[in-house]
Amino acid sequence: MSFDSADPAGSTTAGGTTAGSLATGSLATGSLAAGRRPDGKTPSEADREPVILLGRRTAFARRNGALGTVTQENLLAPVLAAVLADTGIPAVEVDDVIIGNAVGGGGNVARLALLMAGLPVTVPGQTIDRQCGSGLEAIVLACRLVQAGAGSLYLAGGVDSTSTAPLRAHRLSSAPDAPDFYDRVRFAPDHLGDPDMGVAADTVAAAYGITRERQDAFALRSHQLAVAARAAGAFEDEIVAVQTPAGPVAVDSGPRAGLGESLLARFPAAFTPGGSVTAGNSCADADGAVVVVVTSRTQADAWGASGYLSFVDAVPAGVDPTLLGVGGAAAGQALFARTGVSPGDVGRVEFTEAFAAQVLASLDLMGLSAEGANRQGGALALGHPYGASGAMLVLRLLQQARSGASPGELGLTALSIAGGLGLAALWRWETPNG
C-alpha cells in the first residue's frame, strides 16, 4: 500500500464522508488564514494562547494484524491529508508538522509523510522521540511554539508501525559486517536498573499494592467501554480509512466484546514468576497514527470554532527507572503543584494504558478515581502504537469534551514512559461565548 500522491481535499472518513465533515457544525467554512496577523505585527495575548481544534487518526490494529503491511509513513500521510482538509485552508499556511515516533528507523518520518500527503515542499517537518510519550510531547511542543509566537498553525501527533519497524542490530567488533540483533534499546544504565516494561509493571504492582483483581477489572472495563464507544459510532468520524492489499481498514481491531472475568482470570503471569501482570491486563503492541491541529485562540475564533481544548500547561518528570510505571503520577503531581489545580478540579482524565498496574498505581498516587479515567477505553483495549498513543490521549479528550463537557472543564492527559519518565498535560474545554 502506498500514499505517494495524496490529495488533501479528497480524503474521506471511515464512514465515507468527506474529511471536512468532522468540522460540520463546529467550524465555519471561512479560511483559518484570514485570522493571521500581518507580518511584523506584535502578537496579542490571544495570538499566543494555544488550542486544539480537531484531530484525526487511523484505526488502531494489533501488531502484524490488519495494518501489518503498512509502513509508518503510509499510516501518517493520509491522516495529515485528512486533518488538513478539515481545516479548509491552504497547506502552505502550516508552520510545521511535528510528529512523535518511537520505533521507526530514524530519518524524519514527519517530513517524508507530509510530502507524501501532498503538502508543499515549503512546509518543514520534525520528528521527536520521547518513546511512548512522543505523541503527547509533539503536541505540547506545538503548543509551546504558539505560546512563544513562533507560529500559529501546526499539525502535531504521532505514529508507529510496530509491525514494520526495522530490526535492530549492533555491529560486532570481531566481524563488522555481521549483525548482533537485539530487541530494544537501553533506557537507563545498569547500576540504576533497566527492566523490561512488563517486569517493571510487576514491580509497580507489588510496590503499590495493586492486586491482580483490580488489574483484571480495569482491563475488562477498558474493553467494555471501547466496545460500547465503537458500537455507538464514537470513533467513526475521526478515523481515516487506510488502504491495504486486503482492502480499507477503518475499524479498531483490539476491543473484545467477548472478554469476561473468567477468561481474564485464566491468564498466567506473563513477565515475573508469581507476578500479577498478565497478557490480559497488559496492552497489545499496535500500529496507528494520530494528528491534531494546534493553533491560537485568535485563529480559532476567526475560523468560527464553537469550542476547543485550550492548553494550560505540561510537565515532564523523572523517577526511579525500576518504577517507571509511576512516572505519569510524578508528572501529574508536579503539574498540579505548578498550576495550583487540585485533582478534584479535573473532570476528565486520559492515561495511557500500557499496563493496568501502572495506570491504577499512578491514579492512586495522584488522588484520581479510576472510574473517571479513559471513558471510551484505552490502550488495554485499543492497543499501543507507541509514538501515537500520547496523541491519542489528546484526541480522546477533545472528542469527549466536544460532545459533553461544560465550558471551563479541565482535562488531564498523562502517561508513564520507558526509562523512568512521565509526562502530563492540562487542558481546558472552552467555547468562544462560554
Tell me about this structure.
Residues 51-297 form the Thiolase N-terminal domain. The protein has 434 residues and is an alpha+beta fold. It has a domain at 311-430: Thiolase/Chalcone synthase (Peroxisomal Thiolase, Chain A, domain 1). Helix content is 30%, strand content 20%. The strands form three sheets. Strands 1, 2, 3, 4, 5, 10, 11, 12, 13 and 14 form a ten-stranded mixed beta sheet that branches. A hairpin with a 3-residue loop joins strand 13 and strand 14. Helix 3 crosses helix 11 (386-404). Residues 1-40 have low confidence and may be disordered.
β-strand amount: 15-25%
Uncertain residue segments? 1-40
Kindly report the average pLDDT value.
90
Under CATH, the topology of the domain at 311-430 can be stated as Peroxisomal Thiolase, Chain A, domain 1
Major sheet characteristics: 10 strands, mixed
Decide which structural class fits the backbone: alpha+beta
Highest CATH level, the class of the domain at 311-430: Alpha Beta
Strands, count: 14
State the fourth-level CATH superfamily of the domain at 311-430: Thiolase/Chalcone synthase
Q: Radius of gyration in whole Å, from Cα? A: 21 Å
What coarse outline follows from CA principal-axis ratios? globular
